[in-house]
Amino acid sequence: MNPTSALGPREPLRATDKSPEAFRTISEVADDLDLPQHVLRFWETRFAQIKPLKRGGGRRYYRPDDVELLKGIRHLLYGEGYTIKGVQRILKEDGLRFVQSIGRGEQSVAPPGAAERGSADGGSEGRVSAGHAAEDEAVPSERLGAAFAAEDLARLKLALGELLECERVLVSLGSSDDEIPR
């Protein structure tokens, strides 16, 4: 029930109505990044730098720095085609602030292969190419050309995230890798 005033019923606050310094819930961040909530929870298991505050009942509250980091990670994974391992390497080599600045749009990433300083072939290790996706990684639409519509790709990414979460649950329950079909 929305309270009313002399001007009529009040609308509930949306994330965009909040101060830039306000903490955000997982649903607000997921909406802002156009990602399912389970993807954010999954990323918390892969990126130690993502540390939302957790309150009673495990409710997550993301600080503005956390949101900028998530935006940077999302851009590197989905926009630039980096793998999770590739983004982890960027975080290790270039630091948290660099990835946050990508999330704010202040930085761009180096061309393919440049982020992989010291790799013997100077190639694109850490990036996904069509037909050669690393396990646990999403293939960005620009790598597939017109093979998939954006809507189909979004459904595939969602399904992949759900499958990875199922695998994580199976592993946490003590299932061995031999028991998990691939």
Describe the structure.
By secondary structure, the protein is mainly α. It folds into 2 domains: 118 residues, Orthogonal Bundle (Multidrug-efflux Transporter Regulator, Chain: A, Domain 2); 34 residues. The chain contains 7 helices and 5 strands, in the order βββααββααααα. The strands form 2 sheets. The protein has a 3-stranded antiparallel beta sheet with strand order 3-5-4. The chain has a two-stranded antiparallel sheet with strand order 1-2. A hairpin with a 5-residue loop joins β4 and β5. α3 crosses α5 and α4 crosses α5. The protein is globular and about 45 Å long. The chain starts with a strand and ends in a 10-residue tail after the last helix.
Features:
Multidrug-efflux Transporter Regulator, Chain: A, Domain 2, 7 helices, three-stranded antiparallel sheet, mainly alpha, 182 residues, two-stranded antiparallel ribbon, 2 domains
Can you summarize this structure?
The protein is mostly helical and 182 residues long.
The largest sheet has its strands arranged as 3-5-4
**Which bin fits the share of residues in helices?**
40-55%
Oligomer: single chain
Determine and state the CATH class of the largest domain: Mainly Alpha
Counting helices, strands and paired strands, the structural category is mainly alpha
Note the total helix count: 7
Order of SSEs: EEEHHEEHHHHH
* Poorly predicted tracts of residues: 10-15, 115-124, 129-147
How big a fraction of the residues is strand? 5-15%
| Rg, Å, rounded | 19 Å
Looking at CATH, which topology of the largest domain would you report? Multidrug-efflux Transporter Regulator, Chain: A, Domain 2
| Average pLDDT | 73
Overall structural domain count: 2
Summarize the biggest pleated sheet.
Answer: 3 strands, antiparallel
Dominant shape: globular
The CATH level-2 architecture of the largest domain is identified as: Orthogonal Bundle
Question: How many beta strands in the DSSP annotation?
Answer: 5
Termini separation: 48 Å
